[in-house]
């Protein structure tokens, strides 16, 4: 347990304040940890993933005895020390060769984990093409219906999205969009697409291979307003197979997904908060009630009757003899 | 004049940009993410993996960039900045939401009294020296009396009276008082939240409940030594006579509670099907009215075409 540090001077106070929770968070810092044994392939894969993640990446150069699925104490310690909320742990064993574990933290505790095996790795150096500038935001591309339906792949998508591009941006310069990170799956096996889920069978066997590719983007004039996009492989490219995982604790996930209250200006724009005279009915349709002003019934045109004419009444009262003349006069007017 | 060539060229250009997929791609501009829910083409996947992956990625990137080009822009020093809408994907936070700092005792008092906070300047004008001086701290103005070359002493003052010392003691006392207040504020802020205090409050509540949970409501119970009398919430009664306006307001509030049709619809959580959610899902968030309109439109167009035949 780390003691709570009381800042002794203004500089350390500022440093501590920078670590405090913020409404709109900084991008997640990832720590790259090597396990007790990592092969060349895994080392290279981690190095290049780090190159993509830079500058929000910290590398632990020494080997560490770390087993994230058994004990998370050291992860919590490192996360606290480095103010990091993500880990990429490389570990190669006989049983699970070339394993990469993505770990995500919430409030200093492990939220969820997903282990993938690196089946195939092609380095950046292999592609003799232009590379993207470090620190530029990638476009993310996910292709498969399973990313919306299968819990394992929903988690993987969430993790990878959080890893590469979870920073909230106000805007982007289109000239700064340099690369795409594409995550695609192999065709879904019939065992996986069948609706009957057999829990007894090892599910990971049927999970499709994940292809992670990176491309640089170039826009070509197409003759229309929208340019045609062309991609050039940049590297690294990885083929991953899903292995062990740990889903997020529902309570913890609920706390982690809590959003800040909407600002007043957002409410005025119509986001959030119920507005007056507007309600959603049982079918989920938005129904509004309009208020028209009070109707002036005095000017309401009813059936025209001679006897109701006000001017006539006055005339008849004042002078009955001049009745005919009065009507004539009115007609003239 | 034959324009078919030009038209074909234009169509080709258009085709190069437009994406044709069975299921529309989902774009989340806030995170610059695109998801392609179309199933994988197994033949092409097996035939040439890299080419297939690249072509799928190209389509995704094309859709995303086309969507980006339709966003609002703002001029900036480095060229136009494409403004991004808030993201639709929910990603977990790394740290909990910031908790607002609890107000100090003075802040509570000031708010109750409607006192506006007026920030003092750090420096103050010194008439005698003709320069700006700090209010406190290094060579601060609050230490003026302590360093004065001459101090006035009253005629009836004690022999050992030292105005310089007294001023210093006063200043030190003020500092000590402020520190004490700060500590009290910190203690007050952490009082409700600490685990121990929460537990204590819970135990006290349970104990109070058990004490009145006998047949005699605790009246004939054996009393322990030093046991305090139970203090509950004091009931407050409304005055017998009160303004008509108040009475009207309270009865109207009661009636509105009885009516509450909007709340009733929300409460029926026992139903197996959440109708609103289902409608939202089927109509892709457009609502039931839009859905019926769409269906009738389709039907209408069908009948028309049939009629033509």
From TrEMBL, chain A:
Subcellular location as annotated: Nucleus, Nucleolus
InterPro entries documented for this protein: Brix, Rpf2
Gene Ontology MF annotations: rRNA binding
Main subcellular location of this protein, as a coarse class: nucleus
Record region (Disordered): 1-21, 263-333
Pfam families: Brix (PF04427)
Basic residues bias (residue ranges): 1-13
Keyword presence, Signal: no
Signal peptide as annotated in the record: none
Protein name: Ribosome production factor 2 homolog
Lineage: Eukaryota, Fungi, Dikarya, Basidiomycota, Agaricomycotina
Automatic annotation (TrEMBL), chain B:
Ranges annotated as biased composition (Pro residues): 83-103
InterPro entries assigned to the protein according to its UniProt record, in alphabetical order: Ribosom_reg
Amino acid composition bias (Basic and acidic residues), ranges on this chain: 162-180
Keyword list, A-Z: Nucleus, Ribosome biogenesis
A GO term from the CC aspect: nucleus
GO terms (BP aspect): ribosome biogenesis
Signal sequence interval, chain numbering: none
Main location: nucleus
Region entry Disordered, spans: 79-103, 158-199
Localisation per UniProt entry: Nucleus
A family per Pfam: RRS1
Function of the protein: Involved in ribosomal large subunit assembly.
Family: Belongs to the RRS1 family.
Name of the protein in its database record: Ribosome biogenesis regulatory protein
């Amino acid at each position: 347990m780390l003691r709570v540090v009381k800042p002794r001077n203004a500089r350390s106070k500022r440093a501590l304040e920078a670590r405090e929770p913020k409404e709109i968070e900084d991008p997640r810092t990832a720590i790259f940890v090597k396990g007790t044994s990592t092969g060349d392939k895994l080392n290279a894969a981690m190095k290049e993933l780090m190159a993509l993640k830079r500058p929000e990446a910290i590398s632990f150069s020494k080997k560490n005895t770390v087993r994230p699925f058994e004990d998370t104490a050291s992860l919590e310690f490192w996360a606290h020390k480095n103010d990091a909320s993500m880990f990429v742990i490389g570990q190669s064993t006989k049983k699970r060769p070339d394993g990469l574990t993505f770990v995500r933290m919430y409030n200093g505790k492990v939220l969820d984990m997903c282990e993938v095996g690196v089946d195939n790795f092609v380095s950046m150096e292999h592609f003799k093409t232009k590379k993207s500038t470090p620190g530029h935001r990638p476009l993310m591309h996910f292709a498969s219906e399973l990313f919306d339906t299968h819990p394992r792949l929903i988690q993987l998508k969430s993790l990878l999205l959080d890893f590469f591009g979870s920073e909230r941006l106000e805007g982007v310069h289109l000239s700064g969009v340099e690369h795409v990170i594409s995550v695609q799956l192999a065709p879904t096996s019939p065992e996986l697409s069948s609706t009957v889920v057999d829990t007894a069978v090892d599910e990971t066997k049927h999970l499709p291979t994940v292809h992670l590719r990176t491309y640089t983007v170039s826009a070509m004039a197409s003759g229309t307003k929208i340019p045609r996009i062309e991609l050039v492989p940049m590297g690294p490219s990885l083929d991953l197979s899903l292995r062990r995982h740990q889903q997020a604790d529902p309570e913890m996930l609920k706390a982690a997904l809590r959003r800040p209250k909407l600002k007043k200006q957002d409410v005025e724009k119509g986001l959030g908060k119920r507005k007056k005279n507007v309600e959603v009915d049982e079918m989920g349709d938005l129904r509004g009630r309009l208020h028209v002003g009070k109707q002036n019934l005095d000017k309401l045109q009813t059936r025209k009757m001679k006897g109701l004419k006000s001017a006539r009444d006055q005339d008849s009262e004042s002078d009955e003899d001049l009745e005919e003349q009065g009507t004539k006069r009115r007609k003239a007017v | 004049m034959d324009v078919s060539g030009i038209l074909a060229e234009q169509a080709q250009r258009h085709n190069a940009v437009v994406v044709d997929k069975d299921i529309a791609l989902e774009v989340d501009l806030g995170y610059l993410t695109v998801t392609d829910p179309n199933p994988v083409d197994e033949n092409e996947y097996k035939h040439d993996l890299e080419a297939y992956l690249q072509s799928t990625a190209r389509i995704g990137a094309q859709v995303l960039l086309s969507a980006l080009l339709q966003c609002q822009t703002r001029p900036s020093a480095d060229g136009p900045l494409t403004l991004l809408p808030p993201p639709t994907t929910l990603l977990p936070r790394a740290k909990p939401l910031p908790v607002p700092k609890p107000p100090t005792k003075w802040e509570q008092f000031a708010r109750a009294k409607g006192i506006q906070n007026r920030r003092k300047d750090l420096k103050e004008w010194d008439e005698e020296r003709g320069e700006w001086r700090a209010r406190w701290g290094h060579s601060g103005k609050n230490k003026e009396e302590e360093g004065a070359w001459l101090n006035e002493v009253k005629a009836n003052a004690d022999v050992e009276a030292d105005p310089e010392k007294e001023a210093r003691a006063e200043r030190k006392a003020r500092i000590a008082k402020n520190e004490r207040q700060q500590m009290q504020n910190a203690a007050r802020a952490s009082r409700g939240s600490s685990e121990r205090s929460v537990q204590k409050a819970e135990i006290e509540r349970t104990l109070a409940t058990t004490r009145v949970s006998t047949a005699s409501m605790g009246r004939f119970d054996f009393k322990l030594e030093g046991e305090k009398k139970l203090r509950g919430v004091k009931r407050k009664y409304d005055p017998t006579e009160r303004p008509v306006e108040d009475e009207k307001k309270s009865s109207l509030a009661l009636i509105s509670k009885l009516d509450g049709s909007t709340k009733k619809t929300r409460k029926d959580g026992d139903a197996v099907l959440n109708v609103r959610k289902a409608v939202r899902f089927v109509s892709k968030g457009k609502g039931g009215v839009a859905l019926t309109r769409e269906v009738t439109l389709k039907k209408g167009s069908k009948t028309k075409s049939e009629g033509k035949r």
